[in-house]
Design goal:
CATH architecture of one domain: Sandwich
Radius of gyration: 24 Å
Strand order of the largest sheet: 1-7-6-3
Helix content: 10-25%
Oligomer: single chain
Largest sheet: 4 strands, mixed
Structural class: alpha+beta
């Protein structure tokens, strides 16, 4: 049984619209992402404005520790050990900012030969 061409066209358009809407719902909510790289030496810290972020998540928490300043206006990131990690700030509009931290170990002290 075949459908009349007009009904087949309407059904095809409805299916395409439904498929597009489902694909949008399954896509990551962070279509607008900004990535920044920050390099620190172990023991150093970096402040990052909290602005209007609604949530955050961190990568390897052994490499960095994330806290807040006293007024809760900034994230304070402390470099704990050499390696890489991330801090992702999420915003209500679906945007996100990813800070990629590269933490270096301080150079070894030169040995004195006496």
């Amino acid at each position: 049984m075949s459908l009349p061409p007009r009904i087949a066209l309407v059904l095809a358009l409805a299916l395409a619209s439904t498929t597009h809407a489902a694909a949008q719902q399954n896509s990551p909510p962070h279509e607008h992402a900004v990535t920044r790289t920050i390099e620190l030496m172990r023991g150093e810290s970096q402040t990052i404005p909290q602005r209007t972020s609604t949530a955050f998540r961190t990568g390897d928490e052994g490499v960095i520790q994330v806290g807040h300043d006293g007024a809760l206006h900034h994230f304070v990131v402390q470099a704990m050990t050499a390696g890489t990690s991330t801090l992702t700030l999420l915003y209500a509009d679906g945007c996100q900012t990813v800070y990629r931290f590269i933490v270096h170990a301080p150079p070894a002290a030169p040995h004195s030969h006496q």
